Amino acid sequence: MRVTEQAANIGVVGLAVMGSNLARNLASREGNTVAVFNRTYAKTDELVTEHPEAGFVPTSSYEEFAAALQKPRTAIIMVKAGAGTDAVIDELLRVFEPGDIIVDGGNALFTDTIRREKAVRETGVNFVGMGVSGGEEGALLGPSLMPGGPDESWATLGPILKSIAAVAEGEPCVTHVGHDGAGHFVKMVHNGIEYADMQLIAEAYDLIRRGTGKSPAEIADVFAEWNRGELESYLIEITAEVLRQVDAATGEPLVDVIVDQAGAKGTGGWTVQTAIDLGVPVSGIAEAVFARSLSSHPEQREVSGELPGWHDADAVPPVRDADAFIENVRLALFASKIVAYSQGFDEIRAGAAHYGWDIDLGAVSKIWRGGCIIRAQFLNRIADAYDAEPGLPVLLTAPYFVEALGRAQAAWRRTVVYAATAGIPAPAFSSSLAYYDGLRAERLPAALIQGQRDFFGAHTYKRIDKPGTFHTLWSGDRTEVEAEDTH
Ligand SMILES: NC(=O)c1ccc[n+]([C@@H]2O[C@H](COP(=O)([O-])OP(=O)(O)OC[C@H]3O[C@@H](n4cnc5c(N)ncnc54)[C@H](OP(=O)(O)O)[C@@H]3O)[C@@H](O)[C@H]2O)c1
Question: Is Oxidoreductase among the key words of this record (predicted)?
């Protein structure tokens, strides 16, 4: 095939659902001509045939793809993350020149992005790892975009990305997050927060259903109502839609015929693993990841079904006032959600410090207001908090959140008590509350843990009343000696 040389100002490699939709989004914006390439040509042909209005420049080899692009060339890769991304980068480096830009829009692990950026930079080509959120619809109509990479690339890419991103309150949902892997790091944490948010909503649904006996359709009304208040968000909105859906084959609520085993593509797990490495307690996100794992072990659940619960009928308080109970669950959900977001932003803050990224946390919360899965009004409050105090060490200590958490206290605790008493699992609700109380505590039992560590491993401890490091001679006369710091 012969393509018009240098006809396109941007190219897309990888034309599965995300790539084709992103390519169509790009093509629909004034001034863009988009070159497209896919390893299997049939997909390129299908896209170009189905969307003549897009004016795509189809290419069937990497050489043609490079020839179709104006210099400096800009290509966005949207292929299966991992080996696929490396394979495409190798091919592009063969045909690209110094100054060209390769953008990886796949869900890459940020450490892979750091590695790739370093390797590609040595060839003189610029590499940008970019988080893309919003699923297929977002890719087509306006995603939230989280590009990392060098400043020079942002100068070229910025205007193009602004033109295709979602718009929230007049502002495009894209910002240059930071260098090398910063964009994919932030996208990873976005997904971790998404896991926590979804788990909290699922727990709220379960508590209301089992606590009040309301039907999924009735609970859909509850979520629709909540979506008009401080919980307003895409996830609450779609929860109402899912709960209202009736299965055409059985006439049952769809949620009752779906197998109760939640899948995962791995980004939630990455968020938790990374948080562990950074020493950041993202307990709400971790519980959300583990709750999905627990659900996905039918063999364990089957043999555990007969495990004793609290069978004393009087022990489980019946929900007498359904409206009051639902309001308690709403407040508990809001408080737990604040904790989950606070933990996620804490991880970004710690990641930025560790990897040397200059990440504007307020700007990150703003680009999540539109296009992405966790989009919500609430993110404006996070932006306000960081605008007022950019170095805020704990998000939930900002005045807006302090007020909300104060208002939710009794309801949050009653809801967790009810869940525990009734035997309804609410791991994200209860771990969020435990984290909150842990932060608030004047003294933590960590002192005892230090004593235990010193007992069995001579790991030493510090004292509250004088400087230095100490060890008790546990297997000797139990006197205390000064010791070297072995922390
Ligand atoms: N789906 C979402 O909601 C979503 C949201 C955000 C980000 N993402 C990320 O966006 C990327 C694309 O997602 P997707 O769902 O559209 O597609 P996908 O199923 O993850 O990947 C399929 C695409 O990758 C290409 N590919 C795989 N291995 C390749 C290789 N070795 N060399 C060249 N091309 C290769 C395939 O080409 P062939 O047609 O030749 O097989 C096809 O174009 C992924 O990284 C995904 O994680 C997805």
Answer: yes
Task: Please give the share of the chain, as a percent, with pLDDT higher than 90.
Answer: 94
Beta-bridge partner residues of 74: 101
Of 80, 109, 194, which is best to mutate to test ligand 1, by the most ligand atoms within 8 angstroms of its C-beta?
80
Neighbours of 23 (CB within 10 A): 32
CB of 129 sitting under 6 A from ligand 1: no
Q: How many CB atoms lie within 10 A of CB 359?
A: 23
Residues in the chain: 487
Q: What is the C-alpha separation between 438 and 447, in angstroms, rounded? A: 13
Q: Whose CA is nearest to atom 30 of ligand 1?
A: 84
How much distance in Å is there from the Cα of 421 to the middle of ligand 1? 45
Question: Tens digit of pLDDT for each residue in 297-321?
Answer: 999 999 998 898 876 655 667 799 9
Query: Do 44 and 38 meet the contact criterion of CB atoms below 8 Å apart?
Result: yes
187 is catalytic: yes
pLDDT tens across 17-46, in order? 999 999 999 999 999 999 999 999 999 999
Structure tokens at 161: 């990305």
Tell me how far apart the alpha carbons of residues 369 and 138 are, in angstroms, rounded to a whole number. 13
| CA dist 241 → 50, 193, 206, 216, 228 (Å) | 30, 21, 16, 10, 15
Neighbouring residues of 424: CB distance < 8 A, sequence distance ≥ 6:
206, 207, 210, 211, 418
Distance CA 218, CA 229 (A): 18
Domains and CATH numbers, the chain: 10-176 (3.40.50.720), 187-440 (1.10.1040.10), 445-482 (1.20.5.320)
DSSP string, 121-162: HTTT-EEEEEEEESHHHHHHH--EEEE-S-HHHHHHHHHHHH
Residues 6+ apart with CB under 8 A from 89: 77, 102, 104, 116, 120, 127
pLDDT confidence of 4, banded at 50, 70, 90?
A: low
Distance (angstroms) between ligand 1 centre and the Cα of 13 equals: 9
Q: Which residues contact 262 (CB under 8 A, 6 or more apart)?
A: 291, 292, 295, 296
Question: What does the pLDDT look like over 435-471, one tens digit per residue?
Answer: 999 999 999 999 999 999 999 999 999 999 999 999 9
Write the pLDDT tens digit of every residue in 128-185: 999 999 999 999 999 999 999 999 999 999 999 999 999 999 999 999 999 999 999 9
User: Cα Rg for the chain, rounded, in angstroms?
Assistant: 26
Q: Over pLDDT 70: what percentage of the chain?
A: 97
The 10 Å Cβ neighbour count of residue 114 is 20
Atom 4 of ligand 1, nearest CA residue = 135
How many angstroms does the Cα of residue 21 sit away from the middle of ligand 1?
Answer: 12
